[in-house]
DNA sequence: AGCGAGATCGTCT
DNA sequence: GACGATCTCGCTA
């Protein structure tokens, strides 16, 4: 895949990128695995950090697509996003732990594979994400981001842990994976 | 299994 | 002064 095609992939609305990112492979300094769960946030989205405009902490969301937006959640957890078009971003919520499991276990303080990087805060800790990675390109070290199977079956649901715009179906998951942060409820009519 | 509280801090009201 | 794109632990059942 050429460099300009990779750039175009992230220069699209966040929901489309979040959907297509399922099954891709992400590592930070060689630690990571297959992306199993994502959520999309857009600028005209009350739940998005970019909704109220550009601030010091969220400036990365208004920057270059395919770069990292890293923020501190609830004062203690570190969460990793990938910037998309129009001040949107994809929150990485869960990985299949495949590479550097010993490093993940050490950082997380547990050997249970389900507790290594299932959940945005756990993922950030397992991969050693910190605020110095904010604004860094996902195409450059320490990151490595590569496409996975294009036909990976994808679950769709509403986003988790937010109080506004709860109805938007912008949560995506790798179908059948046991590494989702929470199950995808069956669609209710 | 499910609920409730505490940790912890920058941003906003 | 309150509130999060969260996680963990302790309690109840």
Protein architecture, described:
The chain is built from four helices and eight strands. It has 189 residues and is an alpha+beta fold. Strands 1, 2, 3, 4, 5, 6, 7 and 8 form an eight-stranded antiparallel beta sheet that branches. Strand 3 and strand 4 form a beta hairpin. It is globular and about 40 Å long. The termini are far apart. The mean pLDDT is 93. The protein binds a DNA duplex (13 and 13 nucleotides) through strand 3, strand 4, strand 5 and helix 4.
Helicity range? 10-25%
**What's the end-to-end separation, in Å?**
40 Å
What series of H and E elements makes up the topology? HHEEEEEHHEEE
Any idea what the shape is? globular
Number of helices: 4
Mean pLDDT across the residues is: 93
Tally of extended strands? 8
Radius of gyration equals 15 Å
Largest sheet: 8 strands, antiparallel
> Low-confidence stretches at least 5 residues in length (pLDDT < 50)?
none
- Portion in strands: 25-35%
Alpha-beta classification: alpha+beta
Strand and helix map with partners:
Layout: H1 3-10, H2 14-21, E1 25-28, E2 31-41, E3 68-73, E4 77-83, E5 89-99, H3 101-108, H4 120-126, E6 143-146, E7 154-157, E8 171-174
Antiparallel strand pairs: 1-2, 1-6, 2-5, 2-8, 3-4, 4-5, 7-8
This protein binds a DNA duplex (13 and 13 nucleotides) through β3, β4, β5 and α4.
């Amino acid at each position: 895949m050429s460099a300009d095609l990779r750039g175009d992939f992230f220069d699209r609305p966040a929901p489309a990128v979040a959907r297509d990112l399922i099954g891709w492979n992400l590592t930070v300094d060689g630690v990571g695995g297959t992306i199993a769960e994502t959520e999309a946030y857009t600028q005209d989205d009350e739940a998005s950090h970019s909704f109220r405009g550009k601030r010091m902490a969220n400036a990365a969301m208004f920057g270059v697509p395919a770069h990292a937006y890293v923020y501190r959640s609830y004062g203690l957890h570190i969460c990793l996003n990938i910037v998309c078009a129009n001040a949107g971003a994809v929150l990485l919520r869960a990985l299949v732990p495949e590479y550097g499991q010993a490093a993940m276990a050490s950082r997380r303080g547990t050997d249970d594979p389900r507790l290594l990087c299932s959940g945005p805060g756990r993922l950030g800790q397992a991969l050693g994400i910190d605020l110095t990675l904010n604004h860094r390109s996902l195409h450059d070290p320490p990151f490595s981001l590569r496409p996975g199977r294009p036909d990976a079956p994808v679950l769709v649901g509403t986003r988790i842990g937010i109080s506004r715009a709860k109805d938007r179906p912008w949560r995506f998951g790798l179908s059948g994976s046991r590494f989702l942060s929470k199950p995808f409820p069956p669609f209710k009519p």
